[in-house]
Amino acid sequence: MRGVLFVGDRRVEIRKFPDPTPGPGEVVLEIKASGMCGSDLKFYRPAPGEAQKALGLGDITEPLIAGHEPCGIVAAVGPGVSERQARVGQRVMDHHYCGCGVCHHCRVGWSQLCGEGFVVYGATAHGAHADYMKVPARTLVELPDELSFETGAAISCGTGTAYGAIRRMNLSGHDTLAVFGQGPVGLSAVQLGAAMGARVIAVDPSPERRALAPDFGADAVVDPSADDPVEALKDLTHGEGVDLALDCSGAAAARSAAIKATRTWGTVCFVGEGGEVTIDVSKDMIRKQLTVIGSWTFSTVIQEECARFVADREVDVDRLFTQRYSLDQADEAYKLFDTQTTGKGVFLL
User: Global pTM?
Assistant: First the structure.
């Protein structure tokens, strides 16, 4: 089979690998769609293994098959996999983490919180930018028949991450939500927030990405490079500030603005990885009764819930994909994605 590898310094290679065979408790997926995520750039840009070290994921010496948004069909099952767990031909997404499988976090679907350690497909184990992918059966999440494989790939990270954050913030149709960063996760948050009835304001310095936001349901758009985003958001909320703010950028300036632009008793959520932010704790948090939370992707349960929400509300997640590629176009795909001016890319197999 073919697999796309990040070999360092913004270079990719397509290499041949033996077709995988499932062991006990494992399945092999025939990949139909493998999404490109903004966090892929953390592994695409530096030298091999540097991103894993920086993110505390261990010492990786060999390039691995990239891609952590897997969606496809079960092609083979290994010994000990029951019909209820997986069946050949089943349409599935994959929760792209795997822990010990027996601790409390793993049993409730939060494998990335496993205290015994965990693997991240596409980062510390072979991922989904390939013809096939071998994973434990317990990492599978069924894909509703109403949804495309492309939508399933988006839910497997970017859209699922946005949904998990919004659920944690307890968003309702009464709220005004500001979304900082209009990459794939931010656009997903705009789309899902609008589907839940909220008033949504999109914030991004990129004109290309700001232009996408209204089509996904943004009621207003703010350019932080032209206007003070805090003042702009307060102007749009009668001086009060937004009820909820979600930072999908990981940028210090955006995080700071999210906190300052949120009203008293509001909630701010960070999903963008890495970096730092400095705030005045008394002024910005304590005396505003502000809640600040972090949200790290989602559990298998939330992934399934997100898929059901998207199917039942007929949310057009496929619109996130502005580029579609074959695996042979991986170098071209990541060069464009690295500009961070587009929507979402996906490999179709």
Answer: 0.95
